[in-house]
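MODEL INPUT / OUTPUT PAIR
PAIR INDEX: 1
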Amino acid sequence: MQAQNSQPVDRTADVESQMRALLRDVLGISQDRVDAFTADTPLFGALPELDSMAVAGLLTEIEDRFDILIEDEDIDGDTFETFGTLVTFAQAKVS
């Protein structure tokens, strides 16, 4: 599923807010649900919308919106463990 607005974000933009919008758009979950995510909110394995196919789409959209390149070796089991680990991953890539 592709988001309708996939323009890259300004590198100084709030990565957490952009990640919330990205999860909402790509996974098709409600804004209220995404707004309730904390750093400890589990993602992969806890969100039915986030399966292995959705991870591939999410990675592509992260690359597009943040204007970054994600290599296979950049991703490990912890990347999608929680909302916080995903935000930390994105922040490290845009820095």
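PAIR INDEX: 2
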Amino acid sequence: MTGSPTESPCNKVCVLDPVTGFCIGCGRTGAEIGAWLAMTEAERAALVAELPARLARMTSREGRREARRARAATG
């Protein structure tokens, strides 16, 4: 017996943060949002498990500084 499907973490606050590239509502990237329907159940579950940490980093000063440095380094 398989578990219930992982529901989308979307909460209808769909704005991508320009510093981190993550949605401020759910924590996913635009690419992850677009790929959601094509992901396997395991991929969805793994992604959902990462989101709380992403959202926490987005709201911390240090997390935002790290994101700015990473974006500057990649151009």
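PAIR 2 NOTE: The chain has three helices and no strands.
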